[in-house]
Amino acid sequence: MTCEETRPLLHGYADGELDLAKSLDVERHLAGCAACAAILREIRVMRSALRSGAVTFDAPTALRAKIRDAIRDARATQGADRRASAIRRTASLRPPLYWATGIAAAAVFLIIVLVGGLRRSAPSADDIVGNEIVASHVRSLMANHLADVISTNQHTVKPWFDGKIDFAPTVEDFAARGFPLAGGRLDYADGRPVAALVYHRREHIINLFTWPIADASNTAPRLEQRQGYNLVHWQKGEMAYWAVSNLNGAELMSFAGLVRADGAPVTPRG
Question: From 69, 124, 168, 189, which residue has the greatest number of CB atoms within 10 Å?
Answer without folding.
Answer: 189
